[in-house]
Design brief:
There is one protein chain. The chain has two domains: 79 residues, no CATH class; 112 residues, Immunoglobulin-like (Sandwich). It has two helices and 15 strands. It has a six-stranded mixed beta sheet, with no helix packed on it. The protein has a four-stranded antiparallel beta sheet with strand order 6-9-13-11, with no helix packed on it. It has 199 residues and is mostly beta strands.
Length: 199
């Protein structure tokens, strides 16, 4: 597979089809450049060949947004850029959901709870599970009580552990919908909200 880029800006403009035998470099460049609008001179372009199957798979997954050209002019190399924005993917263990909007429901008895799992993901919805994924999250609910995973201690914040955290929300005895806000001090992580109904 060839990755073709514009030399000056180091902007990747395309990749050749993966599979079979790769064409020579010049043919690959002409093939990709020929499909662009106002391509300019062919000498403005360069290509990097990738033969390692594992790398091909990684680069195809990252292309176009995350694949970049780094290194020197004489020794360029392909790199996968680090994600620039993250979000929080929320799941619950609630067995019941509202039939119309699908929000989780738990009994409004003051004792029932729902386990909420928070997972940090990148722009491609890929879970972030590294040691550095330990961001502090701040929690707020307008109804109910937020507790730790075991349900023992009331909490207002939780730290991600390798990109994941679990908390419990306990119901009240009043039937209503509560909104749980999950906020991060890290500006790269988008805040999120979850609604749960006490029924």
């Amino acid at each position: 597979m060839w990755v073709v880029y514009r030399k000056g800006a180091r902007k990747i403009i395309g990749i050749t089809a993966d599979g079979g035998i790769d064409p020579d470099k010049e043919t690959a460049i002409k093939e990709i450049v020929g499909g662009t609008v106002a391509p300019g001179d062919i000498s403005e372009y360069e290509a990097i060949q990738v033969t390692d199957r594992e790398k091909v798979s990684q680069y195809l997954e990252a292309f176009p947004a995350k694949l970049a050209v780094a290194g020197t002019t004489k020794q360029p190399k392909l790199v996968i850029r680090e994600p620039e924005a993250f979000s929080l993917y929320i799941t619950t263990d609630a067995s019941d959901k509202h039939p119309i909007d699908g929000i989780p429901t738990i009994p409004a008895d003051g004792a029932s709870s729902v386990l909420i799992t928070i997972q940090k993901v990148d722009e491609r919805a890929k879970p972030q599970t590294g040691k550095k994924d330990n961001d502090q999250l701040y929690l707020r609910a307008n109804h109910g009580i937020i507790r730790d995973e075991a349900g023992n201690e009331a909490i207002s914040s939780v730290a991600l552990n390798k990109g994941e955290a679990k908390i419990r929300l306990f119901s009240e005895t009043v039937k209503r919908v509560t909104t749980l806000q999950i906020m991060a001090k890290n500006p790269e992580i988008q805040d999120c909200m979850l609604r749960i109904e006490f029924v």
